[in-house]
Each structure stands twice: as C-alpha cells, then as structure tokens.
C-alpha cells in the first residue's frame, strides 16, 4: 500500500499525542485516587479521634460504661456528633439501628445494586469494647476483623474503639465526586484526542508541503529540467535542504551547459581540420593540385594538427576524471624547467625570441610533485609563448620563494590579452581572436590542461597583463618541508 509522507507524519504525530494523553489520563486517575484515599483516611482518623475524645469525656463524667451500655441512643448520638461533616438528621440506617435490639450492633446493611458501590457510614463500622475486650456495642462474629484504638482515662486504658475494615468509598458524596471526576477525565481525554488529531493534521500539512515540493522538483530534475529551483522559506533543516537542492540543481545545470558546449566545440574543432584534409585530397584526386612533396607535407601538417587536438582532448578528459597518473616524489622544479627550456630553445631561436632567466632563490627547493606532469605543464606554457609572441619578442621567467610557496612567473611581450578576457584563458577551447588562431595555437586546450595539473599539485595558477605588454602566467606551488 502506497503511503505518502504527509500521511506518515499525521499518523506519527497522532499516535504520539494519543500516547501522551493516555499517559496523562492514567497518571491523573492514579494521582486522584491516591490523593482522595489519603483524604478519606485523614478524615476517618479525625472522626476516630473525635469519637475517642467523646467517649473519654463520657467515661469521665459517668465513671464507667454502665449507663452507656443501656442507652443505645446515646451511643448513636456520640458517633453521629463526632463526624465534623454530619448533617442535621442522622442517616436512615441509624434510625433503623434504634429499632433493633440493644445488643445488636451495627445493624444489618442491605446489599447494594451491582452497578453501585456500597455506602458504609463511619458510625456503622464502629464498635465499643470494655478494657477486657468484652463487647458493649458490637457483634461477636465481627471481633476478628476489628482494628482496635485504646480509650484512655487518667493514663489507663478503660476501653477500646473497634473499626470494621472498609475498602470502598464510604459516602454518597464521595462516590458522586469520583464518578464526576472519572467522567470529566474521559471528556477531557476525548477533547485532547480530537485536538491532537487536528494538530497532527496541521503539522503534517505544514511539514509535508515542502517535502512534496522537493519530491516534485526531484522528479523534474530526473527528466533533465535543471532550471528548476525551490523557494527557501525558512532557515531550519528543511530550508537548508531546499538550499542544497538548489545548489545541486545549479551545478547540474552548469554541468549540462558545459557538456553541450564541450560537444559543440569538439565537433567544430574536428570539423575544420577534416574539411581541410578532405578539400586537399579531393584536389589531388581531381588533378587540380599535383601530388608533390609540398602537397604531402601540407597533408602531413594537417594530420599532425588533428593528432595534437585529439591528444589534447584525451589528456584533458583524463585530467577531468582524475585519471592522470601522478607519481609524486620530492623534485627540484627548477631543474625540470631548465631542461624544458633547453629542449625548446631552437623554436625560440627560430622566432628570434630572447629568454631572460631571473632566479631569486638563495637555496634549492623541492616540491612534492610528478616530474613528468611538471614537464608537461612547463612545456605547455613555453609553447604558448613561442606560438603567441611576436617575432623578436622576449620571454622573462622569474622564480622566487614566498614563505612556503614557490612562485614561477612567465611574462612575455606583445601581443597582449584584453583585461576582460584574462579570466577565460583557462576555459577549454577558449581563444583570443586577435592572437590565437588554429594554425599557430591549436584548439585552446593547453591552459585548461595546465590548470588541472596545477590543481592536482595543490597549487594555483592565474593570468594577468604583463609589464612587457604581453601575457603573464603566475604559478604558486607548495614547497615540501
């Protein structure tokens, strides 16, 4: 059976509230019964004390129980007057006791209806015994059940007041009070259950509404609608969840846009050299262009440019996925850079580009890096300078240490890069139109690969305008201790 989160929240809140109400009802009933029992016991003890005081006074005035034993009415009056809550007229059962034989006490009580509790007045549970525990008022068969309280006169026990046990509420008003309290508790419990149901529904609706919106938005996101966003209406966990969802949707939207641009750029970059190759081959087939060494060299150059593009794409895809193998060891990057400069020196000489080396390091430094990837990084930067610097230009390479960072700066002469285009230089396939062309530059992937390599070594790379009116690339790499 399919259950909604709103229904589950409703049931959870309702069951929790029902358990709380039930617990409160049971506790209140237990507390009332216990408190009421203590109240009844206290009042009974008060009556016992009053009766004993009255009997002690009677014994003092009459110097014995002889007159009382012959006066049942006086015994009834003493019991009735000892109750501080007595009414003007004794109960009908006391009236019945007057008509019974003097030696019969207490009177026989009628059996109560099955639906009602027995009403036993305090006086009908009292018996009077002599000091030797012979009966003055009472029944012989009830003696084993009695709880005896001594009656004293001049520090001597002159008799005993015996009480029959009573496990029930012993007054009509007390019974009615307990019944009214039970009815009130049940009514309050029902009202609380109704209120809890309303509150549970309201909370389930309030909490379920943002969850339902998130579910709907997640379904839209699953089918490719990455522009969907959730309203943020609070700062609690649900608000944070909505914010995280929006961040995820924004990242997916940006990733999808990058993927679309990636596919479009690759198609465009591959289409151009393929079209050139096709045109030249068709010209050779049609006899428009003779098959000479120059024609073959031109075709070979186009194939090599296509090969460089596919290799750059492969390297970039590996670095994006983190699949480039990095075998990091402590190395001296300056030695690697000097070797790469020596390897590319003929290309700089062919364009009459001079190289100025500025080393401000007082001691050799090591960094924890992959020497092959560092060489790839340096050669990409040096190739950029060769390809994009005008003939008779200059490249200045400076190296300096800043605390725990090694800073390398590659600064060349014209042409420069407009200020607004500097942040885009590390984007893949990005080329500055006035200086980067397919013949000299390639597909615009070199600096993107450089950025990935530097990040893999926990460093930073940035581009800025050079003081030589060209481009400056600055790299910071952490120095290993």
TrEMBL record:
Its main location: membrane. This is histidine kinase. Residues 265-481 form the Histidine kinase domain. It catalyses: ATP + protein L-histidine = ADP + protein N-phospho-L-histidine. The chain crosses the membrane at residues 6-27, 184-207. The keyword Cell membrane applies. Keywords: ATP-binding, Cell membrane, Kinase, Membrane, Nucleotide-binding, Phosphoprotein, Transferase, Transmembrane, Transmembrane helix, Two-component regulatory system. Its EC number is 2.7.13.3. It is a multi-pass membrane protein. It is found in: Cell membrane. InterPro entries: HAMP_dom, HATPase_C_sf, HATPase_dom, His_kinase_dom, HisK_dim/P_dom, HisK_dim/P_sf, HssS/ArlS-like, Sig_transdc_His_kin-like_C. PROSITE patterns: HAMP, HIS_KIN. The keyword Cell membrane applies. Residues 205-257 form the HAMP domain.
């Amino acid at each position: 059976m399919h259950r909604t989160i709103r229904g589950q929240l409703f049931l959870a809140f309702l069951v929790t509230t029902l358990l709380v109400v039930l617990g409160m009802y049971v506790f209140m009933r237990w507390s009332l019964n216990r408190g009421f029992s203590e109240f009844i016991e206290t009042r009974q003890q008060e009556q016992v004390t009053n009766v004993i005081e009255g009997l002690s006074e009677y014994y003092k005035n009459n110097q014995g129980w002889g007159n009382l034993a012959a006066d049942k009415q006086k015994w009834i009056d003493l019991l009735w007057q000892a109750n501080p809550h007595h009414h003007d007229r004794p109960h009908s059962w006391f009236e019945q006791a007057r008509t019974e034989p003097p030696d019969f006490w207490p009177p026989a009580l009628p059996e109560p209806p099955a639906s009602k509790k027995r009403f036993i007045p305090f006086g009908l549970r009292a018996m009077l015994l002599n000091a030797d525990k012979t009966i003055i008022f009472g029944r012989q068969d009830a003696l084993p059940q009695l709880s005896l309280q001594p009656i004293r006169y001049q520090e001597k026990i002159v008799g005993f007041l015996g009480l029959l046990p009573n496990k029930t509420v012993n007054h009509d008003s007390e019974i009615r009070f307990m019944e009214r309290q039970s009815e009130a508790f049940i009514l309050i419990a029902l009202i609380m259950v109704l209120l809890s149901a309303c509150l549970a529904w309201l909370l389930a609706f309030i909490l379920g509404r943002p969850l339902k919106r998130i579910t709907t938005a997640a379904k839209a996101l699953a089918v490719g609608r990455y522009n969907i966003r959730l309203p943020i209406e609070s700062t609690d966990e649900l608000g944070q969840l909505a914010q995280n969802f929006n961040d995820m949707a924004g990242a997916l939207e940006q990733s999808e846009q990058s993927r679309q641009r990636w596919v479009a750029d690759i198609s465009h970059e591959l289409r151009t050299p393929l079209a050139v190759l096709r045109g030249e081959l068709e010209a050779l087939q049609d006899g428009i262009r003779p098959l000479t060494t120059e024609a073959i060299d031109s075709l070979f150059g186009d194939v090599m440019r296509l090969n460089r593009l596919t290799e750059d794409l492969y390297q970039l895809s590996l670095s994006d996925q983190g699949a480039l193998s990095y075998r990091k060891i402590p190395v001296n990057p300056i030695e690697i850079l000097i070797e790469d400069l020596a390897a590319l020196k003929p290309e700089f000489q062919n364009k009459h580009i001079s190289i100025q080396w500025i080393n401000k390091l007082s001691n050799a430094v090591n960094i924890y890096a992959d020497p092959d990837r560092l060489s790839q990084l340096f050669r990409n930067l040096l190739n950029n300078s060769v390809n994009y610097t005008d003939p008779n230009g200059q490249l200045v390479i400076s190296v300096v240490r800043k605390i725990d960072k090694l800073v390398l700066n590659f600064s060349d002469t014209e042409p420069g890069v407009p200020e607004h285009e500097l942040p885009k230089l590390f984007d893949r396939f990005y080329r500055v139109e006035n200086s980067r062309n397919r013949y000299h530059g390639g597909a615009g992937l070199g600096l993107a690969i450089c950025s990935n390599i530097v990040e893999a070594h926990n460093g930073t790379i940035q581009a800025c305008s050079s003081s030589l009116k060209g481009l400056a690339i600055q790299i910071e790499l952490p120095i290993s201790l």
